[in-house]
Design goal:
Blueprint: H1 2-23, H2 45-61, H3 71-80, E1 89-91, E2 94-97, H4 106-117, E3 133-134, E4 139-140, H5 145-159, H6 166-182, H7 192-209, H8 217-221, H9 225-232, H10 241-252, H11 260-278, E5 301-303, E6 307-310, H12 313-325, H13 328-331, H14 339-345, E7 351-355, E8 357-360, E9 363-366, H15 368-372, E10 380-389, E11 399-416, E12 421-430, H16 432-435, E13 436-438, E14 444-446, E15 451-452, E16 458-460, E17 465-471, E18 479-483, H17 497-500, H18 514-519, E19 536-538
Antiparallel strand pairs: 1-2, 2-19, 3-4, 5-8, 6-7, 7-11, 8-9, 10-11, 10-17, 11-12, 12-15, 12-16, 13-14, 14-18, 17-18
């Protein structure tokens, strides 16, 4: 009888709450102009993204205080009369919660945290996740808003590869894809309706697998974000990242806790006075202000002291040949021979300057050897090149297509043509035949041990696109490719550049349709319960 009484009281509590919310009338609706406003509430994407990310990760990992799954959530299923297999079960005197399809096993949790713990990203991409992961306690500590941004935009779909049922991974990947499309710097108005339709489908998929308690107000607010984009424009015009960063600057002004406003006012006035005086001084660095190493306006240059080395003549000829084949002036040399072309025709000096790092177009590159000694990864590169494809050895009609090549930087050379110097990267390229593939969810995978194109290892530094590689949790032989934004965080010539740089590329090139995934599911994959997990017992 006590159990029936609890269910009845719970049912009455839910009914009263819904009745109260239905009759609640906020005072804003009493204002005369309120009904004429197109945007009544400016939704902050930063906090919505952070809260959804924390709820999602907390639920699949079972993090106490962050998970939307628990005894109360399972008892709600009894009240609603749905999903009997997920309701609390009795085993003698003990009560346990069956393992849901979205719950990770301990082995999967360890693999998930290991992926984040061993993660190396380009410098300035995000905070060091090694400091956020506790391998002993298997939990995440002190995730900031930008950590959640990078997780849900790029890292989470890769970190859960090979874990959870395919249907759950697909739904989570589609939710991450929505936030990635929403936060783009440039949005096509014609695609917004399609993004909204995909979001509705994604939420329906999540409702099929997650408990009703997961769908709080933050998940609901995602339905209104596209409508607000239509009215107000891209989200990076309005989100809270620049304001939060400036609040951190103001907090750094405080020296005495009992005079907070006075400290902020005095430091602000002093900073304004120094900036005003600096406008009348030339070629003078501000005292106490560090030089921005990623300034886009600076010239391209090597990082650190270069070493002059004698190189192998064969490699030097390969580098010189690449310069000749990829210099536009060579194609027009018959009509007009420029001075640069004259110097290039003489060939480079036998001695080249080798660097451990190079800054070009505001992007910092390093060699693989340098990255092995540090906690970041700046050696991954990709390039798109014209390639001749044939179907067989007897094919007499080859076609020319653009193909992506992936590799890592082994050496950075500065070729000396006397009057001009040309930086080139010597790379170890992954062999496209058998070394690059795209899986069923659209992720690009490469086998970094399968090397090829050894007769053509050089590219111009200006041609390199920076990427980084994450070891595939499903198969350590392969690595997932993630393209890095070429606008670095903190390129603060203006206040908005760092917000533009947060336009991260989604790691999957294309994602299959819902029907494709549903039709490939087996009977055991359509259940709400995982049979390979350990149930959680309630004390």
């Amino acid at each position: 009888m006590s159990g029936e009484r609890v269910k009845k009281e719970r049912r009455q509590e839910i009914t009263q709450t819904l009745h109260f919310l239905g009759r609640r009338n906020q005072f804003f609706f009493n204002l005369e102009y309120w009904k004429h406003l197109y945007v009544r509430h400016c939704l902050d994407v930063m906090h919505i993204e952070k809260n959804v990310c924390e709820s999602l990760i907390g639920t699949i990992l079972g993090i106490p205080g962050k998970s939307k799954d628990g005894l109360s959530a399972r008892e709600d299923l009894e009240v609603m009369g749905i999903r009997d297999e997920l309701q609390p079960q009795k085993e003698g005197e003990k009560t346990y919660l069956p393992v849901a399809c979205y719950n990770m096993s301990r082995a999967e949790k360890k693999k998930f945290y290991t992926t984040l713990f061993e993660l190396k990203v380009p410098e300035g991409y995000s905070s060091n996740f090694r400091n956020r992961v506790s391998m002993d306690e298997l939990k995440l500590n002190s995730l900031k808003s930008h950590d959640c941004h990078t997780l849900i935009q790029q890292l989470l779909p890769i970190a859960i590869r090979g874990m959870l049922p395919k249907k759950v991974r697909y739904a989570i990947t589609k939710l991450c894809l929505f936030f990635n499309a929403l936060c783009n710097k440039v949005l096509d108005v014609n695609t917004l309706d399609g993004i909204q339709e995909e979001l509705v489908t994604t939420l329906c998929l999540l409702e099929m697998y997650f408990l009703p308690s997961f769908f709080d107000v933050m998940v609901h607010l995602t339905c209104h974000l596209i409508h607000e984009v239509k009215l107000c424009g891209p989200v990076w015009f309005r989100w809270m990242y620049p304001f939060e960063r400036y609040i951190k600057v103001l907090k750094s002004y405080v020296r005495k806790g009992n005079n907070v406003e006075g400290c902020i006012a005095e430091c602000y006035i002093a900073e304004e006075a120094l900036e005003y005086c600096a406008e009348y001084l030339k070629d003078v660095s501000a005292v106490g202000v560090p030089r921005n190493m990623n300034n886009l306006s600076s010239d391209d240059h090597g990082i650190g002291a270069g070493n002059v080395k004698l190189v192998d003549l064969k490699l030097l000829n390969q580098a010189h040949q690449y310069v000749l084949e990829n210099t536009n002036e060579v194609e027009e040399y018959k009509d007009n021979i420029s001075s640069n072309m004259r110097w290039i025709s003489h060939g480079p000096q036998h001695q080249v300057i080798k660097y451990q790092g190079y800054m070009i177009n505001g992007v910092r590159f390093h060699t693989k050897r340098h990255d092995d000694e540090h906690c970041y990864q700046n050696s991954g590169v990709s390039v798109i090149a014209n390639t001749m494809l044939v179907s067989s050895a007897k094919d007499k009609n080859p076609i020319i297509v653009d193909m992506w090549y992936y590799g890592v930087i082994e050496e950075i050379w500065l070729l000396d043509y006397n009057a001009l110097k040309i930086p080139v990267f010597k790379c170890d390229w992954v062999k496209n035949d058998g070394g690059v593939k795209v899986d069923d969810l659209g992720f690009t995978l490469v086998d970094l041990q399968r090397k090829g194109h050894k007769n053509d290892p050089f590219i111009f530094a200006s041609q390199a696109n920076q990427v980084f590689y994450i070891e595939d949790p499903e198969n350590p032989k392969w690595s997932c490719v993630i393209e890095n934004s070429h606008e670095k965080f903190g390129n603060s010539s203006n206040d908005d550049s760092s917000d533009k740089a947060m336009n991260l590329h989604f790691p999957a090139k294309s994602i299959p349709l819902v029907e494709t995934i549903v039709n490939t599911l087996h009977d055991d994959e359509s259940s709400y319960v995982r049979l390979d997990g350990e149930p959680m017992y309630i004390d």
